[in-house]
Amino acid sequence: MKTWISGSGCRITRIILGRSNVYLLSNDIYGILIDTGISGDGKKLLKRLGNTGIRPDVVIMTHTHFDHAGNAGLIQEKYAPLVIVQEKEKEFLESGNSPLPKGTRAWTRFLYNLGAERVPQWFHVQGVKNPVTFGERYDLSHFGFNACVLHTPGHSAGSSCVIVDDEVALVGDTMAGLPASTFPPWGDDAAAIVASWHKLLNTGCRVFHPAHGFPVKRERLERAFKFLENSYTSGSN
Which residues, 6+ apart, have CB-to-CB distance to 206 below 8 Å? Predict the structure, then answer.
């Protein structure tokens, strides 16, 4: 695990690094879990949460794909947290059946066409009862955080990001932390992803922590956004 401290003193801990990064925000009163990882990491997630000594009072889903919502039902059963998701993802979170995102590359489009119809059988996860939903923004100040959840569609219709102190963003699959590209290889609407990058850059955040890969610095995102803004034609870079 690794922990960063924001300007206001919010602790940001990366609980799981690997197939799907999971983060925990904490202050002296509340803990907020960002995503829950793939179902195979359930025992690891519970153990590492226990090691922190911090109870997840709130769970925020950046979106509801299987590698993010895989343990949401498990966490709900153990801790009974408030679960927050963007309104367009509510049905998927409750049912545990979230559609596979379309590809933004030739190889991911091929995989999508190959497997999209089999998604309910391949990637079903335990559903979550009665999540709280929001539209454009959900303020986290009532939990003692200078933070919010911001709707950033593109990867999926209800994708969202957590903005802390206008300094650090936890961005789910809105971008990728890969050596070759920050543009996610999967996404339903490539143009909307670019628009969401613009929204994120307007926050003033200096570093962006994706669910896959490693942190993206603002300068790198600015370069990628400028390239796509000026020459975007196919939704990939």
Answer: 167, 168, 217, 218
For residue 50 the two structure tokens come to: 């226990």
What is the DSSP-derived secondary structure letter of residue 177? B
CATH fold of 2-231 reads Metallo-beta-lactamase; Chain A (3.60.15)
Q: Give strand pairing partners of 11.
A: 5, 26
Domain boundaries, the chain: 2-231
Answer whether 70's CB lies under 8 Å from 37's CB. Answer: yes
Alpha helices in the chain (DSSP H): 42-52, 66-69, 72-79, 90-95, 106-115, 119-122, 190-201, 218-231
CA neighbor of 147 nearest in space, from 16, 32, 22, 18: 32
- pLDDT (tens digit per residue) in 21-39: 999 999 999 999 999 999 9
The CA-based angle 149-134-38, given to 5 degrees, is 65
Strand-strand pairing, 58-60 and 82-86: parallel
For residue 61 the two structure tokens come to 């889903």
Q: How many CB atoms lie within 10 A of CB 143?
A: 16
How far apart CA 22 and CA 33 sit, in angstroms, is 7
Q: What is the DSSP letter of 101?
A: P
Q: What average pLDDT does range 119-127 have in this prediction?
A: 77
What is the pTM (predicted TM-score) of this model? Answer: 0.92
Tokens representing 122 are 């391949």
Give residue for tokens 């049905």. 91
Collapse the DSSP code of 124 into the 3-class scheme (helix H, G, I; strand E, B; otherwise coil) and give the result. Answer: coil
